[in-house]
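ARCHIVE CARD
SHELF: 3
SLOT: left
DATA:
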Amino acid sequence: MLFQASKICNFARQCFLGGLVATSLGVSGANAQNSAELFTGVDANRNGGGAYAGFVYAFNGDIDTSGWTVASVFSYSIFKDSSVIPTATASSTGAVFTFGYQWHTPDYFLTLALGADVIDNVESPSTGSPTEGRKFGGVAQIGFETKATNAMYLNGFGVYHTANERTYLQLRAGYKTDSYAYGLEGVYANELGSDGGVTLGAFVSGIEFGQGKLGFSIGGLNVRDSNIFDGAYVAVEYSIPLGF
């Protein structure tokens, strides 16, 4: 259970985002009209790590205004459990496709989306886990972000996947300046056959870097199955707006 639960805490930050990374990094801004956002990232803890990449597209041609959107994210993760002999390894490959609507006001951003996903978990040696193998399912997600600058900042999202009964919840709270946001974050992730995992840490997001915006997270991971502190995690996010 320790291996499975710590594994999903890594994978959750990748496969479950489904386009909401763009909200936590901060979208394109008032000086340009952009219809899409590309995003990518990497994350790791002592049990493994992975990477993801995806996009969000606004059908009305302006991702900073209310309207219909389509999003997709692809991810890969690899994990190991050295507490057993021989060392157990697992890899997870996933893809998420969603169709949704976003609301923009001067004070906040809100998005709702439905879609489908596929996840393929490969374990060596096989443990007979209920999450092993390739699964298809539906996705429901919600995300929000406050917009005020030089003020308190809130950002959060939640996703539920029917495939392997995966749940992911993240909340960020802190302060937003004219150029970036910073504060504390908490994440809860769970899936079929596990008691889940929790991460608590700090983040900085929306840092201008090149043509896009950069974000960092660092903190501690606690897997509920083990009832102990399970080490540190680190994550890096990057987002680039595009106009078509």
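SLOT: right
DATA:
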Amino acid sequence: MSFKIYDESGSAFDCSGYTPELIVLDDNKSHYIDLITPSWTTQSSGTGTFAFTETKTFGKAGHYFLEIQLTKSDEQTSTELQRITAMDSGVD
């Protein structure tokens, strides 16, 4: 899965030096599903692009909300919640 983060002006957010965490919430935004620590795509953190490979799954198809928290030293910032649809892969 890959993401690109933009700042308020629509420019790519420079994520250099930040540690990202991906927070997953259910469709009602009321239940915390999981926290995944993604890794930055090689040489792309300056353009706000990162990706991760994860063996965890959502457990079932449906709608979820994602938020990315970025931490650097004493500074923390977060993206807005983004709604995604997880589909059944058909793989057991």
